[in-house]
Write a structure and sequence with these properties.
Its cofactor is FAD. The protein is of the alpha+beta class. The protein has 14 helices and 20 strands. The longest helix is centred in the first third of the chain and has 13 residues.
Length: 452
């Protein structure tokens, strides 16, 4: 931004912008460009910390006029660092925190800068919730637009199944309310079509006390536990969500350094019935730790926060597994034993219930057959990366997979997530972003590219 034209354009932007505009060398810039994934150290030309949708419009128009790549930051948890672009403009939504809950209608209107901690705080005051991310510092935008997994999905579906409306700033800087076809694309198609500034969700009765917590078994019992899970989970009531976590670094000091398989059951129905239902799981073999207890839903939502601490370098790949045959279980055991750092882990979900009863064409998420989702995650602090360990593990599990979910796309081909939805998503892209302005994401390319 050194030319007279650029300086003039920036002056106009500053005059109309209500939020903060941060450039290299200015106070607050380095903090604003810091990402959750410490593997990326990017230096945008401008961070536009927006105060509202009008600021988003101004920032997008400025970037287009000055040929600046556009990145969009909500919670900043993109594993590929898409929230910042070297030499580009970051549309930073993190200051947009408004939320309005209508407990009678069981709906919420939520600005795109909210984290799940913010959102759950507002909705749980009324005993309501929407399926949302299981790390409380994650932004609602990235989780929702990718599909949205969480502890409630077997009862209430994926996050997108509760998405009833959205407002979006287009590539031309116009603010629109999503029509039916755009809303379909936003239900799983990511940030490919514009900058969503506001989400409207259906809410559901939850808690505020639920029954949940991790149960950990030693590695030599992992195969037995996974075989039990494979046979038990498909017939479990919808009120039961089950997360999967394997680690050498559980939140239990006495077990630090021990290879463990953990399951995280969360029951969102009658507590006595839930306790009865979970008895066979809790008595399976000899758990090293059982932390299942009645607790606030908001506490459950932050249980995995330590495993996703900001500043570590991170890389993952994921699979959708329709089943857990014996050879796949053996691979999972090998991966647990060989986690490359104390912070690395396997993380996943049992898929089924309401999340699998939605017609495939109803959203852009793609297939949702009952089964399992599993990510192979390397986290490390400094030094060389562990990408090869992730890729080797991902390749070993590949014969047992039938795709993946867009929520957890990393550097894989997005086509593996969308399947037959890709052609329709491309048509939505052609309508709203034919120049591929919004390409810093798991990108759906327009059919006829004319990107700037």
């Amino acid at each position: 931004m050194t030319s007279t034209m650029h300086r003039s354009a920036f002056g106009r932007l500053r005059a109309e912008f209500r939020g903060a505009l941060l450039r290299p060398g200015e106070e607050g810039y380095d903090e604003a460009r810091r990402l959750w994934n410490g593997a990326f150290d990017r230096r945008p030309a401008l961070v536009a910390r927006c105060a509202g949708a009008d600021d988003v419009q101004s920032a997008v128009r400025f970037a287009r006029e000055n040929d600046l790549p556009i990145a969009v930051r909500g919670g900043g948890h993109s594993v590929q660092g898409y929230s910042m672009a070297d030499g580009g403009l970051t549309v930073d939504l993190s200051a947009m925190k408004a939320v309005a809950v209508d407990p009678g209608a069981r709906t919420a209107r939520a600005a795109a800068g909210l984290t799940w901690a913010d959102f759950d705080l507002a909705t749980q005051r009324h005993g309501l919730a929407t399926t949302g991310g299981s790390v409380s510092s994650t932004g609602i935008g990235g989780v929702t637009l990718g599909g949205g997994f969480g502890h409630l999905m077997r009862k209430y579906g994926l996050t997108v199944d509760s998405l009833r409306g959205a407002r979006m700033v287009t590539a031309e800087g116009e603010l629109v309310r999503a029509d039916d076809e755009l809303l379909w694309g936003l239900r799983g198609g990511g940030g490919n079509f514009g900058v969503v500034t506001e989400f409207e969700f259906d809410l559901h009765p939850v808690g505020p006390i639920v029954l949940g917590g991790p149960i950990f078994w030693p590695l030599d019992q992992a195969a037995t536990v996974l075989e039990f899970l494979r046979d038990w989970a498909p017939d479990a009531p919808d009120e039961l969500g089950v997360g999967i976590v394997a680690t050498h670094n559980p939140p239990i000091p006495d077990l630090a350094g021990t290879p463990l398989l953990g399951l995280i059951p969360v029951w969102c129905g009658d507590l006595d019935r839930g306790a009865q239902l979970l008895t066979p799981l809790r008595r399976l073999r000899k758990p090293l730790a059982d932390l299942v207890r009645p607790q606030p839903y908001r506490a459950v939502q932050s249980m995995l926060d330590l495993a996703a601490s900001p500043g570590l370098s991170s890389y993952w790949r994921s699979h959708r597994l329709p089943a857990l045959p014996g050879p796949a279980i053996d691979v999972i055991g090998d991966l647990i034993a060989s986690l490359p750092t104390p912070q690395s882990l396997l993380n996943g979900w049992v898929i089924g219930g309401a999340a699998s009863r939605v017609a495939p064409e109803a959203t852009a998420v793609g297939p949702r057959t009952p089964g399992f989702e599993l990510r192979v995650i390397a986290n490390w602090a400094g030094g060389p990366g562990h990408h090869d360990w992730v890729r080797r593990g991902w390749e070993r599990l590949r014969p047992y997979a039938d795709g993946q979910y867009a929520t957890f796309l990393s550097d894989e081909d997005p086509a593996t997530a969308y399947g037959r939805s890709l052609e329709r998503l491309t048509a939505v892209k052609d309508r709203w972003d034919p120049g591929n302005v919004f390409r810093l994401n798991p990108n759906i390319q327009p059919s006829s590219r004319s990107s700037r």
